[in-house]
Write a structure and sequence with these properties.
By secondary structure, the chain is α+β, with helices and mostly antiparallel strands. It folds into two domains: 164 residues, FAD/NAD(P)-binding domain, CATH 3.50.50; 93 residues, Alpha-Beta Complex (Polyamine Oxidase, Chain A, domain 2), CATH 3.90.660.10. The chain has a six-stranded mixed sheet, covered by helices on one side. A five-stranded antiparallel sheet has the order 13-14-15-12-16. A three-stranded antiparallel sheet has the order 8-9-10. Strand 13 and strand 14 form a beta hairpin. The structure holds flavin-adenine dinucleotide. Flavin-adenine dinucleotide binds next to helix 1, strand 2, strand 8, strand 12 and strand 16. The site of flavin-adenine dinucleotide has 38 residues, from helix 1, strand 2, strand 8, strand 12 and strand 16.
Length: 314
């Protein structure tokens, strides 16, 4: 019998890779259009060109030898210094490489787990139909399974929705996890801005801004990714996207762009983690992994996903 993994972000992909390496059959379900979760690339149409900008994680750090080896194997390059790495030609190249050969149902939003004598059944709907996190639409879901075990790698509040009916004590563990939000503005300009490739201002709305095209292997363009600080993003969380874009543009001191987009990350960087690599309840066949277990870094998600796989295999 196979194992189901909810979420094909770095934690889910790392968990799946380790389980498959150990000969286990694995199926992943992810509500996104492509694997990667918070490591993603957004398209911006500029005239007749389509540019891809890294709208989530900006770069990776790699202290864990297995993560460092993966970055090397997949051709990540140093940027903006020797301590940090970016995949080429976009951040999404890493999850795409990790997803190769895995059985992933993309665009499927898992709405419930159902215990049966034979294991867990997963209820899922096309992601486009599930607008709010809950309540889920009154529709007959598709059902897959039974699976001998389920690994949930969604961000903690989304994992809690699935866990609460079956394992309220696991949900309680997640109560202490805190994420900062992040409003992100992407923009392409006609002229080069008189700014360094990366900025981390000490005050004001901007936490980080980078000339996306200064990363290795990107298309030539004056493209920028501007991230607001968690405090500013919290204060402006429900503001209209256009107002946020205007304020971040003003903070950057930039002219009107040729093309722009915004992204509101409700769960961006983990501010308070669980403090353990993963959670595994062998008696129920339920596990949890993700950056929220350890720290708000892609590397932490990778370590957590592998730790859960090891716990499941033990
Ligand atoms: C704006 C921003 C900037 C960042 N910058 C950096 C950085 O520079 N360096 C760094 O190391 N890290 C950075 N991070 C953090 C990094 O992106 C995350 O730590 C990491 O990607 C988390 O991986 P994960 O697998 O734990 O979760 P996620 O990537 O969130 O993956 C979870 C997956 O679960 C899926 N999912 C959720 N609920 C369901 C459901 N019910 N059914 C089906 N699928 C579901 C989602 O679609 C998603 O694909 C940044 C994050 C953001 C948002």
């Amino acid at each position: 019998m196979s194992i189901a993994i909810i979420g094909a972000g770095l934690a889910g992909l790392a968990c799946a890779a380790r389980l498959r390496e150990a000969g286990r059959e694995v199926r992943l379900f992810d509500k996104g259009r492509a694997p990667g979760g918070r490591i993603g690339t957004k398209r911006l149409e500029v005239g007749d060109r389509t540019l891809r900008l890294d709208h989530g994680a900006q770069y990776f750090t790699a202290r864990d030898p297995a993560f460092a080896a993966l970055l090397e194997q997949t051709g990540a390059q140093h940027w903006p210094d020797a301590e940090r790495f970016v995949p080429v030609p976009a951040m999404s190249a890493l999850p795409r490489a990790m997803a190769e050969g895995l059985d992933i149902a993309q665009g499927r939003h898992v709405t419930a787990l159902e215990p049966t004598a034979g294991g867990w059944l997963l209820h899922h709907l096309p992601a486009g139909l599930v607008r709010a996190q809950a309540p889920f639409p009154e529709m007959e879901p598709d059902v897959d399974g039974p699976f001998e075990a389920v690994a949930i790698t969604a961000p903690a509040p989304q994992a809690a929705l699935l866990l609460t009916p079956h394992a309220p004590q696991l949900t309680q563990m997640l109560d202490g996890v805190v994420y900062g939000p992040c409003w992100t503005w992407l923009a392409v300009f006609a002229e080069r801005l008189d700014l360094p490739d990366t900025l981390r201002p000490n005050d004001g709305p901007i936490g980080w801004a980078a000339r996306d095209a200064s990363k290795p292997g990107r298309e030539a363009a004056e493209s920028w990714v501007v991230q607001a600080t968690p405090a500013w993003s919290r204060a402006h969380l429900e503001d209209p996207a256009a107002a946020v874009a205007a304020l971040l543009r003003e903070a950057l001191g930039a002219p009107l762009p040729l093309a722009e987009a915004t992204q509101r990350w409700r769960y961006s960087l983990v501010e308070q983690a669980l403090g353990q690599p993963c959670v595994w309840d062998g008696s129920r066949g339920l596990g949890l992994a993700g950056d929220f277990c350890l720290a708000g870094r892609a590397e932490a998600a990778f370590i957590s996903g592998r730790a859960l796989a090891e716990a499941m295999l033990y």
